[in-house]
Amino acid sequence: MDLDAVFGCIAVALSLGLIVGLVLWSCRSIDRIARKGLGSAREILKDKRT
Amino acid sequence: MTSDRRVSSELSRDLNLFHVTMMGLGMMIGAGVFIGIGISTGRVGPGGVIMTFALSGLLALFTAMSFAELSSAIPRAGGAYNFARIAFGRGPSFLAGWMEWFASSVAGSLYAVVFAGYTVKYVTNGLLGMDLADEDLMVVVRIVAVAVASLFIYINYRGASETGKIGAIITVGQMLFVVAIAVIGIVIAIVEPSRMANFTPFMPNGWGELLVTMGFIYVAFEGFEVIAQAGDETIDPKRNIPKAMLYSVLIVTITYVAVSFATMVSIKSGAEGVGDEVWRWIGTRGPQADGEHGFGEAINRMIPFGGLLVTLAVVFASTSAMNATVYSATRASYALGRDRMLPAAFAKISPKRKTPYVALAFTGVIVLVVAGLLPTKDVASCASIMFLFLFLMVNLCVIKIRRNMGDELTYGFVMPLFPLFPILAIIFQVLLAANILHMSLMAWIIAPIWVLAGIVLYFAYSRSRAITTADEILVIEEGETPAGDGCRIMVSVANPDGALQLVQNTYRICSARNARVELLHMVPVPDQVPLADAGPYMLEGKEGIQETMLYLAPQFPISTHLRYCRNVARGIVSAVREKKINMLIMGWHGRSRSGLFHLGSTVDPIIERAPCDVVILKDCGGNRVFKRVLVPVAGGPNSALALEIASTLADGQEGRIVAFTVDRGMGFDLDAFLEKNRSRLRLPRERIETKIVSRADIRQAILDESQEYDLVVLGSTAEARLRLMRHDPVPEAVAKACKKPLVMVRASSGLRSWIRRWI
User: Fold this and answer.
1) Strand, helix or coil at B693?
2) Predicted confidence (pLDDT) per residue in B99-153, tens digit
3) Of residues B65, B407, B412, nearest to A34 (C-beta)
4) Which of B636, B661, B658, B603 is nearest to B748 (CA)?
């Protein structure tokens, strides 16, 4: 079995999975901030700092 | 931006999430994928090319998240230049603008070269059957590339370019083609699994080559930078700009991966002239045996007329991307001139064309020199390396701005695991930029020279001359909207002369409806000038609005709006939507300059799309008294509104209306129609007559009848627009030919009516 192919396919799948996951998470986050009011992002930043 | 006590200025926001996403995709699916697949395949093999696009997509997403966070907090047009100014001050900001100028210009050169490469090859080989030597082919390609680039520079000078909604349609076409290729490839692989053998060996030249190809094709992912520049024109930018950036990277990565896969399985191993190693064949197509034409030739063998389809796709993709990059580059150098970081001449606007012609001329020189002298591979490497530098700076900006100004800015998007992704992006961008050296030594000579030249220029010239910009974050003044829930009438004022033409009739209609008035002047600004810098364009409109206010302000609650836009019709429709207007009144000069439109490029889209009653006035100015008013009636909501408007505009003492119809045996009962709409009429029934004639030519019948009247009021057509592409509908034909003052109306229609008009 070609190990390059195995690792290559895993890398492609991980990359695409990560892209889809990050985009979906980010868009939900954008909607959440918009729903709660734009000032809520400030609260998120404060929470992260504390 | 200027404003006085009564007249406020605003930016027209008429691009939604779909439009800005398509704007980014249109920039990305330009040339990178068409030449990138072949050239990358030659270096990293069949599996490597798929990994190249998947990993580059992930890396692009990291930078897109930085852009998204910054654009959501600072949605002013300007992109990297603006972010760097806020994060690091003038010096790095100059460098960002300087690099953006060069990166976009070189990307424009790349699109010109790819356009020329594919079209020349298709015409010489495919159509003429000529087999030019590689050297001759390259000379012809250079000449065509320079000619095409010159044409687009001229188009930019004329101020005409397709962006926003029309650009979105072209991009959808490009996407459909690319997605079709991907789907066909996947189907082929399912039907004929033996083609998966084309992926052996998976990475023939080792993993190290990945960094080289990832750096090389980075230019194929740079479109989200253009989305940042549309901040001023986008509806709800804090939400839509970041989403559009993320969606565009997601869509384009999946598409590129699928298309790379399709290209690899497009040809059967051992096919005639290909040999056993398909990837090697793809990677050696092109004038310098470097794979430049690998994608096109592979697709040509996969589907019937593949060569023609690929050439058409390249033509559409490259032209829209070239146009966008040229105006993007011009805008970058214009901004440097405006802030006096480059000589003030860069900010000079052509009095006739309203475009920054000096900035465009210098941009043109860069585009033409690079397109004319450098090989395609070096041009692509040069563009990629410059975008890598630029995006590296944006990733630094996002870290600095979050740390220093996190509490002051209102973010619409906050990236997770901060600062992991910007740091990863910076590390990989340095690695990729370094590895481009293996692909193109020329790019590594030119790019640092440009950056060094910028640094020298800054310290020698710009540093002492740069002026302080008004602010980093644009505050837009909103006009006061009259309170209450009554009828809202918007009057679109084009210029002082037009304003006076509108006043008298607007006064009558507003009085009849007891309306609140919103005066609007749309200021069209060419793409090369950011909307926020459009102050000099609005003087005439401001004067027009003030003229109108002199007459209307004492009588009605009134508010005023000056809006900057790229397209007047789109701007007016979006203003109508935003302000929840019930009726729009505007003037019409009475002719259409283009055969593509019935009444004109501004009036037609407004009649189609404005979600309110529309009243269009032609030659109705002065203190005219309308004693005899002709209203051609065919039934339907537009005729009813025409009768209502006619009864409003007719002279209150002596005015008479003639409801006129041409009998064509359809059984239309004019008296019943009048009775049904009696409540809307503002004249006594005895002053409304009916007249029915029998004629074959309805248009001529109305025109002949109109000779006896002071005013003609008619409803716009209710027929489906798609059926009317080749000829003017009767009302529009009458409106054009009528020598009398004329009013055309269109009643507000719901979704069902809108659909009916199109289908």
Assistant:
1) strand
2) 999 999 999 999 999 899 889 988 888 788 777 777 888 889 999 999 999 988 8
3) B412
4) B636
Alpha carbon B25 to chain centroid distance? Answer: 12
Kindly state the DSSP code that residue B748 receives in the 8-state scheme: -
Distance from CA of B595 to the nearest CA of A (A): 43
Question: Which residues, 6 or more positions from B312, have their beta carbon under 8 angstroms from its beta carbon?
Answer: B177
d(CA B380, CA B174): 20
Relative to beta strand B488-492, strand B8-11 is unpaired
Give, to the nearest 10 degrees, the angle between helix B134-158 and helix B306-338.
50
The chain B residue lying nearest A23, using CA atoms, is B246
With contact defined as beta carbons under 8 Å apart, do B215 and B385 qualify? yes
Q: Name the residue facing A12 among B54, B203, B238 (closest C-beta).
A: B54
Residues of A in contact with B51 (CB under 8 A): 8, 11-12, 15
For chain B, domains (ranges, CATH) are: 13-465 (1.20.1740.10), 486-620 (3.40.50.620), 624-744 (3.40.50.620)
| CA B341/CA B336 separation, integer angstroms | 5
> Which of the 8 DSSP states describes residue B15?
B
Distance from A1 to chain B by nearest Cα, in Å? 11
Distance in Å, alpha carbon of A47 to nearest chain B alpha carbon:
12
Q: Which strand (E) or helix (H) includes residue B20?
A: helix B17-28
- Chain B CB contacts of A38 under 8 Å are 238, 410-412
Determine the Cα–Cα distance for residues B15 and B240; give it in Å rounded to an integer.
Answer: 9
Query: In chain A, where are the structural domains located?
Result: 22-50
Helix or strand or coil: residue B388?
A: helix
End-to-end CA, chain B: 43
- Judged by a CB distance cut-off of 8 A, whether residue B208 touches chain A is no
CA angle (B149, B155, B157) in 5-degree steps: 105
Nearest in space to B244 (alpha carbons), one of B234, B257, B254: B234
The reply to whether residue B416 touches residue A42, judged by beta carbons under 8 angstroms, is no
Predicted pLDDT of residue B5 = 41
Q: Which residues pair with B561 in a beta bridge?
A: B8, B520
Determine the Cα–Cα distance for residues B179 and B548; give it in Å rounded to an integer: 52
Per-residue pLDDT reduced to its tens digit, B426-449: 999 999 999 999 889 999 999 999
B46 in contact with A, Cβ within 8 Å = no
CB neighbourhood size of B726 (10 A):
5
- For B412, which of A11, A16, A33 is closest by C-beta distance? A33
Over residues B708-719, the pLDDT tens digits come to 899 999 888 765
Minimal-distance CA residue of chain A relative to B202: A5
In sequence order, what DSSP letters do the residues of B567-595 get, joined into one string?
-HHHHHHHHHHHHT-SEEEEE--S--SST
* Contact predicate B421/A47, CB 8 Å: no
Q: Where are the beta strands (DSSP E) in B575-693?
A: 583-587, 613-618, 628-632, 656-662, 688-693
Chain A residues with CB-CB distance to B257 below 8 A: 12, 16
- The model's confidence at residue B222, banded by pLDDT at 50, 70 and 90, is confident
Please indicate whether residue A19 or residue B273 has the higher confidence score (pLDDT). A19
Are residues B51 and A8, on separate chains, in Cβ contact within 8 Å? yes
